[in-house]
Amino acid sequence: MALALLLKYGMSLYAPVLTKISGAKTMEDVETALLDKVWQQLQPNLSAAGFETWPEDLYYIAYKEEQKLEAYGLLHGEWKLIKAYPFTVMSGKIGPKLKEGDRQIPEGLYKIEYFNPNSSYYLSMKIDYPSAFDQRVAKADGRTDIGSDIFIHGKAVSIGCVAVGDAAIEELFMLSSRLEAKTHQVLIVPWDFRVKPEFPIIDELPWVEELYEN
């Protein structure tokens, strides 16, 4: 049956049904399972920040030294802190990602690119590393294999991703996937510049000051 429908309608049109036949979760499955649960968990945080319903836009900031991710929602033109989530594990050190396999969490301004309801790390959201800036400085440095596939995800494992655990990724996944414009921003910084305004000094990377200024 699945093969006949595939031949008739094509892969892209019939992918959601094929996913169900194969036993994998769809985005709709995740929302059905989690929406009410996550709303009950987050409603006190949203209410305290002034929200009566889900935010219309989001901004995430991940701090490597503090090992936490903050979720901000847009309310009447102002960004309001909804909740902070601790990393469950930290990979790499202070400084940007340079190459595939260096275990570094990138640093810079990114966007959520897509959602994976069937992640090996429970649920995950892919960020669009490498950014245009990452690619430009890599070309200037002569670096070619600069890595990819950086996610915010569940569990307590990281080889360059932002791991926040299963309970946290459920909340972030529901906050994010409900947005009409799903390309909201993710800022990853070495530490909280509001508390510690000086930039990291990495002598072998002459462009890091430009990165942190940006």
Please explain how this structure is put together:
There is one protein chain. The chain is an alpha+beta fold. It has a single domain (25-192, 202-213), classed as Beta Barrel (L,D-transpeptidase catalytic domain-like), CATH 2.40.440. The chain has helices at residues 2-9, 11-22, 27-49, 132-141, 166-177, 208-213; strands at 58-63, 68-75, 78-86, 108-119, 122-127, 150-153, 162-163, 185-189. Strands 3-2-1-8-4-5-6-7 form an eight-stranded mixed beta sheet, with helices on one face. Strand 2 and strand 3 form a beta hairpin.
CATH architectural label: Beta Barrel
Quaternary state of this entry equals single chain
CATH class, please?
Answer: Mainly Beta
Reading the helices and strands in chain order gives HHHEEEEEHEEHEH
Q: What structural category do the secondary elements indicate? A: alpha+beta
Q: Could you list the spans in which at least 5 consecutive residues all have pLDDT below 50?
A: 1-22
- What is the molecular shape? globular
**Helix coverage percent:** 25-40%
How is the secondary structure organized here?
Elements: H1 2-9, H2 11-22, H3 27-49, E1 58-63, E2 68-75, E3 78-86, E4 108-119, E5 122-127, H4 132-141, E6 150-153, E7 162-163, H5 166-177, E8 185-189, H6 208-213
Parallel strand pairs: 1-8, 6-7
Antiparallel strand pairs: 1-2, 2-3, 4-5, 4-8, 5-6
List keywords for this structure.
eight-stranded mixed β-sheet, alpha+beta, 214 residues, 33% helix, globular, disordered N terminus, L,D-transpeptidase catalytic domain-like
